[in-house]
Amino acid sequence: MEVHIGQLIKSRLEEVGMKKSEFARRINKTNQNLYDIFTRKSIDTDLLKTISTVLMCNFFASLAQAYERNGELRDMALEPLHNYNKNTVATTNNQHLEHELALCHERNNQLKQEISYLKEINALLKPNKR
Q1: Residue 57 is part of a domain; what is its CATH number?
Q2: How far apart are CA 42 and CA 51, in angstroms?
Q3: Which domain holds residue 38?
Q4: Are residues 91 and 121 part of one domain?
Q5: Percent of the chain at pLDDT exceeding 90
Q6: Distance of CA 93 to CAs 44, 87, 88, 122, Å?
Q7: Long-range contacts of 46-49 (CB under 8 A, 24+ apart)
Q8: Which of 57, 94, 121, 127 has the fewest CB atoms lying closer than 10 Å?
Q9: Co-location of 74 and 93 in the same domain
Q10: How many CA atoms lie within 13 A of 58 on its CB side?
């Protein structure tokens, strides 16, 4: 069974009771574009994000659930995702943060050295008070 995003959008629009002209205005489309959206089997993700916001419905999750029910996601060679280790992301983020911290420490030490030099220069420029 194929999921028809245009029909899902049209059904949600009817469910919330928003006028089509108001919906078209909110997603910055003409009425003709709106009717075109209702006939689509696929849609641009940026547009779907806007539509999801306006209709307060996560169409991305709805599509994923529909494809899972149909068994189509299992057929898309997504098996490596099931074995994905969430700790990998955390480790990568930690390594990135540690690197950023090391750069900050290095820059801090450079600035301290510059301040020290500036203090010495300042002391030399001051007239001797004797």
Answers
A1: 1.10.260.40
A2: 13
A3: 5-82
A4: yes
A5: 41
A6: 30, 10, 9, 43
A7: 48/5
A8: 127
A9: no
A10: 6
